[in-house]
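Support reply, case 0932

Customer input (verbatim):
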Amino acid sequence: MPFPVPSEPVQRRKPRILLAEDSRADVLLVREALDAHNLDVELMVKRDGGDVLAEIERMDAGDVACPDLMLLDLNLPRHNGETLLARIRASAVCGQMPVIVVTSSDAARDRQMASRLRASAYFRKPSDFDEFMRLGELVRELLGIAHRPH
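Our regenerated output:
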């Protein structure tokens, strides 16, 4: 009786995250937060609302796949986060994608808007580094990735 041939290990695709953020410092902090939680993800950074809108159009056209999650700053050049979140929720292809609003705003109006447009979470950028690192925990939770320490 022959021995079973071991199969090739299954290559799992890295989760893809679209980060809409114009601040280079905040992009670095987001990367740090993901690294701090051992999240092996593909991070696509768009620094302009127009670029984000164009990416959503490419998703709807089937030219690129929807990311697994989006991190969305509310204050972007050309198109703000509210416009972009409304456009994502109107998408037939990516409308159910989890979106975390990541903003310095603590305004009730912004929180209400995010809730009305079904943001998955609202993360106010803290001034404290350790608090910012908690973003990685929130991403892990929304992606449904079990914690595996390295």
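We compared this against your earlier run and they match. Two observations from our side: The radius of gyration is 17 Å. The CA atoms of residues 28 and 34 lie 10 Å apart. Please reopen the case if you see a mismatch on your end.
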